[in-house]
Structures are given as C-alpha cells and as structure tokens.
Design goal:
By secondary structure, the chain is α+β, with helices and mostly antiparallel strands. The protein is built from 9 helices and 8 strands. The chain folds into 2 domains: 3-77, Orthogonal Bundle (Arc Repressor Mutant, subunit A), CATH 1.10.10; 89-256, 2-Layer Sandwich (Beta-Lactamase). α2 crosses α3 (47-59). The longest helix is centred in the N-terminal third of the chain and has 24 residues, at 3-26. This is DNA-binding IclR family transcriptional regulator.
C-alpha cells in the first residue's frame, strides 16, 4: 500500500472512531433513549451513517434497541466499561475515605467530580441520610461555568484553558446561572482567595453546594470534592462552617494523590 493510501486509511479510521465515540457520548446527557433522527441532527451526520454506527454498537452490546419505541439506550458492554473505569480510578480510590469523613461531618450528600476535557462528571457520591436530600447523576457531563464543583475546577485551570471555556457559549441552566464572563472571572478570583466555591441554585434550582478543587501530584487540577443539599439548609452560618471542612478535604485528597503544595 502506498504512503498516500495508508494515510487516507488512517484518517478515515480515525474519523470513524471519533463518530462512534461522539454517538456514545450523546447518551451521557439528556434522555436515556435516543433515536436515529435525534442523533443525526445533534452530530450533523446523515441518518444512514448514524444507522450503520448504531447497528455496529448494538451487535457488540454497547447499545440496546427497543423495537416498540425505535430508540436506543446504553447496553451492558458500556455499563461494564464504566464500572471498570470507576473501579480503577486513582482519584476515586484516593478520595473514598475523605468523602466518607466529609459526609459524616456534615450529613449532607458529598460528591466527587473529575475534569473531563472542558466539562466535568460526577464519579462518586455518598448520599445524606436526611429525608430531604440532594443526589447527583454519576457519569453525566456538566459545564464548568455553573455550580460550585464546576467553578472550583474552572478557577484552577491554566489561563488559556479558562479563557477558552469563557469564550464558548455559556448556557443558562437555571435563572441563577451566571453567564457573563466578566462576572464569572470576578467570582473565580474570590474562589481562589477563599479556597472554595459556594453556589445556590446555579446548576439545579433549590440546591446549594460548596466545593474545592483537587489536584494531581504535579499541581494540575483533576476535579473537585463538594457537599450539597437543599438550599434552605445552606444558610450563611452553615456555609461558613462547611467551607473549611470542604477545603481541608480537597487538600487531603490532593495529598493522597501525591500533591505536596501548600
């Protein structure tokens, strides 16, 4: 095979693999079932291309097809991959005892998020034992401009990455979501000074959260640890009490990952 043909085959293979991943990633947000038309519209692909990808994924149990609704949902192969990823996660393993201690200290839902590209995902939670409590959706992607966990991460990104996030369209998730880049920059400066982010109703109406960034051994931000619950329980005095707990928890997780910073 000539060099040109090999390069073309490699390019086509890379593009095909990227399309398969893009299809699977659509299932991490929004409805649990998706149809061919929706997927084609979201990805800008023809229905024929999407149908071929879906059939291939179904044949490998990565997706399941419901003939009644003509829709697809994630299959056992993807569930197994996700479970293996969580089981092998260095961040989750290092954070588990800290998440447990923070949960015991607050009796609020304690969460762990990981930075994935320019978004974040929840990879673990320990739910509050209270009757009214907040829970999060493990594995779902969230933007970095809304909510305490997101802003705790965003505040610690290198400047070029931070500005790239703020230059992209900033969706309003609730009436409380801040979408003005200058206001967000001012908030991020305050988060750095405090060592923690506090939010109320920014990502989910009626919910409040306090979060602090977690770092790898080299100091790069890897995610965030948080406590969250109904906004009615997160008054000013409670937030002031929880902030140092969350901040110290983030430091403990970071040190467990090898970070030695102050």
């Amino acid at each position: 095979m000539s060099e040109t043909l090999r390069d073309s085959a490699t390019s086509n293979g890379t593009e095909a693999a990227a399309r398969v991943i893009d299809v699977l990633l659509l299932f991490t947000d929004g409805p649990s079932t998706l149809g061919v038309t929706h997927i084609a519209r979201e990805l800008g692909l023809s229905k024929a291309v999407v149908h071929r990808i879906l059939q291939s994924l179904v044949s490998r149990s990565a997706l399941l097809f419901d003939p009644a609704s003509r829709a697809y949902r994630l299959g056992p192969a993807v569930v197994a991959l996700g479970a293996r990823s969580l089981r092998d996660s260095d961040l989750r393993r290092a954070a588990l005892p800290v998440v447990r201690r923070l949960h015991e200290a607050t009796d609020e839902t304690t969460t762990l998020s990981e930075l994935v590209g320019t978004e974040r995902v929840y990879i673990d939670q320990m739910e509050s034992t209270r009757e009214i409590r907040m829970t999060v959706e493990i594995g779902r992607r969230f933007p970095l401009h809304a909510g305490a966990s997101s802003k705790a991460i965003l505040a610690e990104l290198p400047e070029p990455e931070l500005e790239a996030v703020l230059a992209a369209p900033l969706g309003r998730l609730t009436p409380e979501t801040v979408v003005d880049p200058d206001r967000i920059r001012a908030e991020l400066a305050a988060i750095r000074a405090r060592g923690a982010a506090v939010s109320g109703g920014e990502r989910q109406g009626g919910a409040s959260s306090i979060a602090s960034a977690v770092r790898w051994a080299d100091g790069r931000v890897v995610g965030a640890i948080s406590v969250c619950g109904p906004i009615m329980r997160f008054d000013e005095a409670t937030c002031e009490r929880y902030v140092p707990l969350v901040r110290d928890a983030a430091v403990d997780v970071s040190r467990a990952l090898g970070w030695n910073g102050g």
